Amino acid sequence: MNSKLQKIAGGARRQSAWCVFAVGLTLAAPVQAAILTVTGTGDTIATDGACTLREAITLINSAGPASADCPNSGAAFGTSDEIRFNIPGAGVHTIAPASPLPTVTTRVLIDGYSQTGATQNNAAVGWNGTILIELNGGGAGAGADGLRLLANGIGSTVRGLAIVNFAASGIRLGDPVVNGSSSSNSVLGNFIGLRADGSSAGNGIHGVSLSALLGPGNNADGNFIGDGTAAGRNVISANGNCGVVINGHDSNTISGNYIGVDPSGDNGRGNDACGVWINQGADNGVYSNVISGNDGWGVLIGGNLAGANSVLENYIGVSASGLPMGNSSHGVLVAAPDNSIGDANDGNTIAYNGGRGVAISSVGPYSGNRIRANLIYSNGNLGIDLNLDGVTLNDLGDPDAGPNSLQNFPVLTSATTGGAIVGTLNSTASTSFRVEFFSSPSCDPSGYGEGQVYLGSNNFATDGSGNIAVNLAAGALTAGHAITATATNLTTNDTSEFSACITVAAAAAPEIQITGNATPIADGDVTPSLADYTDFGTTTMGTPVARTYTIANSGGATMTLGAGAVTLSGAGCGEFSVSVQPATTVAAAGSTTFTVQYLPTNVGTDTCTVNVNNDDADENPYNFVIQGTGNAPAGAAAAIPTLSPWGLGLLSLMLGLGAAIRARRRH
């Protein structure tokens, strides 16, 4: 199992120092106060020889005094009281209230793990704990919650219970009709919507509802649903609406839970509408949960006040062991401003969902939603969709408005197996952007996105025209894989949709091209030309002419030429020589030169073939024909013709006759 999967399945999280400090305060061992022990599964408040859960809650709320059936085995009431369980007999003990249980109005620990034989989970993935106390609300009546906490901010803990079949929610933090707050509570290690054996039963509305009566001074803030540990993991599944709902409250943490799956984390037990719903709440954290298999959305954040919420390191649409288990609608739907879906080193895995991976609603418009470092793939629609209307094409200068300001995405132009990714971004002028790059085995059917592997990011600033070149040295990439990118405005935090895909080019190889006089010379050329220096022209005998040629490597890998790479062949090569050899290697996109000299020693045209050895797979050697023409020096004497023997005899006779005539004249 990879480390990230283990971290998510086990509930590891990254939170603010405040959040960690608050967990410590909530879970620190309290000063011992009253301890009441439930010894029967009944639902009475009577002297009948058994302490019932209803009776224990009533006595805790009233700060005693203890009864004969519910004796206090601790200290004084009212500091940090406990309700424990010690019901005789083996196996699961079911408590079936005939009406709603009393709202808990003081700080208390309700500890199902105190029942003999019950054990907390300690499996990093899945569940190996044992729950033996089950609250079954089938007879509790309309509107009944399993447990309702209204402890006015001093923090209660509920752990080790299975809570099923209540008409409303399994656990409600707050009260729908009574003023008061329900803050700093912890809900840990429970099955909510599943029976103690892990089978589905559900609650009528939500698994856990954070919903105090709205009004001044009332809140359900600073609560913890799960604490990021295996022991604190709740399984919240099979409920009639959502797994966890935060309704208008702030600074709560949902961490390390299984929401929509069974205790193993690998079988679907979906909540009917969504996994997590944050409605008009701010600064809430959804960390390191498995939120999969739900019949609607994985995570829904809605309302103009629902800002600064963080969804980090979750599996959304993926089982605890990484198997496909999509939510039937979108992985994450945001109809709110200024939230974070993933962050550097804290991205979510959002995959196999029936709708979009991440959708920013068209209602609003809602902007400032940062989508960072997530692994988004294999969803039924776009990986990221702004406006819920399919691909939103770029506009010059990015002036349009809408969800996330309809932020332009990058335009990628090339990607090589060596990891060089290159592209451009056009958006708001003189603005800084973070561009993130992703790869997937194949492109989304739309041709845009998604991003199964996060490759990294770089920051860039556009110029006064809104343009900037973008790039990433990503390390080795697989030929044929699809590369995409997103852009996030670092001023507004608006993130774009995924860019169009480009395909990683085939494995890098050298590619040779030779030019003369900046003009390409084709491999195998046999038509010398003055334009490309393959024709040296006419020159006087004994006067050298040099021509320099450039060898360029337009491929993606270093080209090897070796020592003495350029050779000459052919009958006329005696008049030519290689005066300067090229470098032995040429880097990708690099070049080198060599020089050939022509020194004619006779009048006439000479031809020769130039051969350039290299490791280009289909152009080795690279060759072409050159030629030059020698000319006699200006003013040179004409050559004396060669005479035949008959001509020589005639010449001798004429010379003798001339001598005789000159002798006679002297006499």
C-alpha geometry: elongated
Sequence of strands across the biggest β-sheet: 1-2-4-7-10-13-16-19-22-25-28
Number of H/I helices: 4
Mind telling me the C-alpha Rg?
42 Å
Domains, number: 3
The percentage of residues in β strands lies in: 25-35%
Number of strands: 48
- Sheet with most strands: 11 strands, parallel
Overall mean pLDDT stands at: 91
Give the fraction of residues assigned to helices: under 10%
Query: Low-confidence spans: pLDDT under 50, at least 5 residues?
Result: 1-30, 637-667
Structural class given helices, strands, pairing? Answer: mainly beta
Ends distance: 131 Å
Please give a handful of descriptors for the protein shown.
disordered C terminus; mainly beta; Immunoglobulin-like; 11-stranded parallel beta sheet; 3 domains; 667 residues; 4 helices; disordered N terminus
Your description of this structure?
With 667 residues, the protein is mainly beta. The protein has four helices and 48 strands. The chain folds into three domains: 3-355; 356-507, Purple acid phosphatase-like, N-terminal (Immunoglobulin-like), CATH 2.60.40.380; 512-631, Immunoglobulin-like. Helices cover 7% and strands 31% of the residues. The strands form eight sheets. An eleven-stranded parallel sheet has the order 1-2-4-7-10-13-16-19-22-25-28. Strands 3-5-8-11-14-17-20-23-26-29 form a ten-stranded parallel sheet. Strand 31 (411-415) and strand 32 (420-426) form a beta hairpin.
Describe the structure concisely.
7% of the residues lie in helices and 31% in strands. The chain is mainly beta and 667 residues long. The chain has three domains: 353 residues; 152 residues, Immunoglobulin-like (Sandwich); 120 residues, Immunoglobulin-like (Sandwich), CATH 2.60.40.10.
